[in-house]
Amino acid sequence: ALAGKPQIVFADEPTGNLDSRTGGEILAFLRAGVRELGQTTVIVTHDPAAAAYADRVVFLADGRIAGDLTDPTAAQVADRLLEIEG
C-alpha cells in the first residue's frame, strides 16, 4: 500500500502486535514518509510511546474531541489519557 507513495496514510494500531523494537522501526518508517515524502499520516493508537512520534495528537472520548497536544512526549500523552479517563 505504501509503494505508490500515497499522500495520506491511515494506520490503525500499526504497532499493536509487535515487539517494541519492531514497533519502533515501523513508526520510524512512517515518520520518514512524513519527513521525506511530505505524506500525512493518521495513526489510531492507545500507546503513548507510539503517539509521541506524531507532530500532533488528538484525543477522542465518546466520539468527541477531548483535547490535543503539539509535539508531545510519551509522558504528556499518558498524563492526558489519565486526565480524560479520570
Can you walk me through this structure?
This protein has helices at about 20-35, 50, 75-85; strands at about 10, 40-45, 55-60, 65-70. It has about 90 residues and is α+β, with helices and mostly antiparallel strands. The termini are far apart. The strands form two sheets. It has a two-stranded parallel sheet. A two-stranded antiparallel ribbon has the order 3-4.
Q: Could you estimate the helical fraction of the residues in percent?
A: 25-40%
The 3D shape can be described as globular
Secondary-structure-derived class: alpha+beta
One letter per element, helices H and strands E, the order comes to EHEHEEH
- Kindly report how far apart the N and C termini lie: 38 Å
DSSP E strands, number: 4
Tell me the strand percentage band.
25-35%
Give a quick account of the main beta sheet: strands, pairing sense, barrel closure: 2 strands, parallel
What's the helix and strand layout?
Layout: E1 8-12, H1 20-37, E2 40-44, H2 48-51, E3 56-61, E4 64-70, H3 74-85
Parallel strand pairs: 1-2
Antiparallel strand pairs: 3-4
List keywords for this structure.
86 residues; alpha+beta; two-stranded parallel ribbon; two-stranded antiparallel sheet; 3 helices; globular
Question: What's the short version?
Answer:
This protein is α+β, with helices and mostly antiparallel strands. 40% of the residues lie in helices and 27% in strands. The strands form two sheets. Strands 1-2 form a two-stranded parallel ribbon. Strands 3-4 form a two-stranded antiparallel ribbon.
